[in-house]
Amino acid sequence: MKLTKSSILLFCFVLTVQWLLPSFSYAKLYTWTDRNGNVRRTYYPPPQDQVLKDKSSGQRSAKQKKISRNQVDLYVTSWCPYCKQAIKYFQSKGVKVNVYDIEKDKNAAARKKKLDRNSGVPFAVVNGTRIHGYNPELYAEALQ
C-alpha cells in the first residue's frame, strides 16, 4: 500500500478530531427530587410541575442552602494520598461528599468507568462537572 500525502493528512485530521471530541461532550447533570420523593439525575433541567418544593428552605441561611445544594461524588482508592486530600478539601468546605472506593465497590467502579474512561483517581463529579485528579481550584469553581 502506497501512502500519499493526502491520505496521511486525512489520517492526521481524523486522529485530531477523535482527540478533540471527548472534551466537548461534557454536560451539566441536574439532581432533583420529584413530587413522589424520588431523587432524579438528568441532563436536562427538572420540569417545574415535577419538582418537590422544600418547605423548610425559608428557615435556612443562604450559606446552608448553598452547601446543601452541592452534589459531590468522589471516586477513590484506599491507598491514594491525593484521594485523601480531596476528601479533606470537601469536608473543610462543609460539603457533603459521597465517597466511593472503586477497589472495594464493584458497582462504583462500573459507574466510574461509565462516566470516565481514564483509570486514575481521584475522580470527582461536582454538581455535574467531571474533574480528574486533585484540583482544589476546579473543585471551588464547580461548587459555585
What does this structure look like?
With 144 residues, the chain is α+β, with helices and mostly antiparallel strands. It starts with a helix and ends with a helix. The model is unreliable at 55-61 and 63-67 (pLDDT under 50). It is extended, with a radius of gyration of 20 Å. Helix content is 38%, strand content 18%.
CATH H-level superfamily of the domain at 64-143: Glutaredoxin
- The helical percent reads 25-40%
Which stretches of 5+ consecutive residues score pLDDT under 50?
A: 55-61, 63-67
Number of strands: 6
Mean pLDDT: 80
The CATH architecture name of the domain at 64-143 reads: 3-Layer(aba) Sandwich
Number of separate helices: 5
CATH class of the domain at 64-143: Alpha Beta
User: What value does the Rg take, in angstroms?
Assistant: 20 Å
Structural class: alpha+beta
Question: What layout of secondary structure does this protein have?
Answer:
Layout: H1 5-20, E1 30-33, E2 39-42, H2 62-69, E3 72-76, H3 81-92, E4 97-101, H4 106-115, E5 123-126, E6 129-132, H5 136-143
Parallel strand pairs: 3-4
Antiparallel strand pairs: 1-2, 3-5, 5-6
Question: TL;DR?
Answer:
By secondary structure, the protein is α+β, with helices and mostly antiparallel strands. Helix content is 38%, strand content 18%. The chain has helices at residues 5-20, 62-69, 81-92, 106-115, 136-143; strands spanning 30-33, 39-42, 72-76, 97-101, 123-126, 129-132.
